[in-house]
Amino acid sequence: MTGLPDLTPAKAALERGRGVVIVGPPAVEQARVLWDLLPQERAAEAPTPATVIVTGDQGCAVEWAHAAPAGISVHPVTGLDRTIRLLGEGEDRIDILAGTPGDLTALAARTALKLESISTVVLAWPETIVGSPEADSLDTLLTQMPRARRIILSWNPAALEPLLERHAPRPHVVGDLPLDADGRPPRPAGPARFAVIPRERRSAATREVLDALNRPDVFLWTVGTPCPDHADAVLCLDLPTHAELQTLSASGPPVLLVSPGQVQYLRSIAAPLTALALPAAAKLARTAGETVRAEVVTRLEAGHLESEMAVLEPLFARYDPVEVAAAILALRRERTLPLPVATTTASAAPPSAPASEFTKLFVSVGKKDRAGAKDLVGALTREIGLAREQIGRIVVRDTFSIVEIVPAAAERAVQGLSATTIRSRRVQARPYREA
Prior knowledge:
- The chain has helices spanning about 10-15, 60-65, 80-90, 100-110, 135-145, 160-165, 200-215, 240-250, 265-270, 280-285, 295-300, 305-310, 320-335, 375-385, 405-415, and strands at about 20-25, 50-55, 75, 95-100, 120-125, 150-155, 170-175, 190-195, 220, 235, 255-260, 275, 360-365, 390-395, 400-405, 420, 425, 430.
- The chain is an alpha/beta fold.
- The protein folds into 4 domains: about 15-175, Rossmann fold (3-Layer(aba) Sandwich), CATH 3.40.50; about 190-275, no CATH class; about 295-335, no CATH class; about 355-430, 2-Layer Sandwich (Alpha-Beta Plaits).
């Protein structure tokens, strides 16, 4: 939000147990109004932080830690074991815990985070969570904190009506709803180009973007900066609102630098939207920067990806390479369909390990527990730390599942699964014995 509104009604609504919705673009550095609504003090004897910020990804959680005012300690959950150690030691004061629904739920399941002690929960632009695999974890998390005050940051509250009805009915709204004069969602402000660049790389990448634009008059826009009458291009270093983007478009063709979690918002305010081709785009597409896991790096180093690159090349003209890499990872995690590759024998990827190289584990959750293969893969990779190539076929039955693991990681998987929770149920794992 660009202004600082009167928060007296919002504070009163929170005191009466009502939720508060703060309308604005999904930019942590522009949500300064939030800090004035959070509790300023926490009892010294409180066992855990009094506030949690629920984010769509770990990168956003890190941004909250960087944006916190002096005197407020925000810990981003980027590693469960380290967070559990810090919470258990209690030596470093943590005022606010920021993390994804899955990570926060995992901390609660391992009793490191005591949800009954949380007094305020902030949902940081849950539009990116609703409809994703994290949605169930978010519902579970909020259900276990029925008395915690709700503060929701949102760029489109209308899209959150089912969530608000369940967990924050009739909230007080701060800011202007994204509606036109007829009370309908506004049409996109116009065309724009964008590049996905994490906030921490923004300063260093600006020169690269200017080189790619190669225009004599590029105006660098930040929130609150008046726009010129004309420019060859407008480079947005901050995230504009719909109205601000309309004004910027009148000055010159807008180009926006966004984080991965901001692309969905950008598609709601700009159309057509085109990825800006940067000199390092090919490298970003191959390595996906810091977002890919070790298994992807290993496969890249193995080479022979010519056929896959031929399939993906047409997408780079329409989407940012980081988006393409993220979509590929999502498809692989869902484990529903094989990825399409061009027909060739010379550059075919190495085959997966044969079934004889895996050992089977029995896991005590199944379809009746609403568990799926992606839940098991998520527990094995995110919470236990296994690489994706160490996991084989997963068969989910009514009351249990059978998971194939490479023998070298089987004992670690059994111990890790037996210490975790899937779909709010404590898991038991052991070697599978054929009937």
